[in-house]
Amino acid sequence: KEQYDAICARVEELLNAAAAAGANVVCLQEAWTGPFFFCTREKQPWLELAEEAATGPSFEFISRIAKKHNMVIVSPILERDGAHGETIWNTAVVVGNNGNYIGKHRKNHIPRVGDFNESTYYMEGNTGHPVFETAFGKIAINICYGRHHPLNWLGFGLNGAEIVFNPSATVGALSEPLWPIEGRNAAIANTYFVGAINRVGTETFPNAFTSGDGKPQHADFGHFYGSSYVANPDGSRTPGLSRNRDGVLVNDIDLNLTRIVRDKWVFQMTGRHDLYAELLAKYVRHDFVPQVIRDPALTDNAAPAGPNGVTNTNA
Known about the structure:
The protein has a 5-stranded mixed sheet with strand order 5-6-7-8-11, with helices on one face. It has helices at 2-20, 57-69, 150-158, 172-175, 179-190, 256-265, 267-270, 273-283; strands at 25-27, 72-81, 87-95, 101-106, 132-134, 137-141, 163-168, 193-198, 200-209, 218-225, 229-231. Helix content is 26%, strand content 22%. The protein contains 8 helices and 11 strands. The longest helix has 19 residues, at 2-20.
């Protein structure tokens, strides 16, 4: 509880700073209520942080601040679903500017790479691609690993999102080369604003752990490199926040830009969603056959091509 209270105190300072700068909609980092302990595979004491989305302590805390500052706040937490056997989910709670509970979205894609042992705690979400209509615009949340999946971004766009937040907790050795690209590409392809939010710093745990990837046991996840930014539908973006310090990024956006860019590029009109839907309907079947047209000049016993297209032969 001491650690949780300290985190809340710092988060309140940051939210107050955002409010002082005139922010209307704010999104916190993924699983902000505690350390990113999923690397450890330990259930206790970490699951004590899990809570009901609409009635838990973090909702009461965020609700008070949202109402005080007339802000919509996206609060990513570890959810305990009491109605379904206390199942755990990685969830983003949307709190209205009146301090009211609007709804929640559960993480669609769960990583299984390196130290990201999240499926020890929760599985893929079941809430689809909801868009939340708030006093300040239509927002959606593509939680962390979902940013690597273009169709996940598309789902929120099809449902009319104007701003999509990507609350994350990702480390430099794994994903930093992708970080400045994926959110920006999503903003362009789907004609909405993207808020890319990342945790910052290095967290050390009491017990060393391994992840079956050949690395020696270690007690930290690696460096969360921050670098949060906002990408715009016209391809422009803000500078990123620090790699080493927490902070608040406030960006003034004009939602009319989404319509201006749509009218210019007409991506939504020229998209062939009927073709994509037909292909995907076939792909998800167990008897799917890829649409490959083979050169008739190839013989059945032709040697397979090796690296750089060089044919492999026995010498």
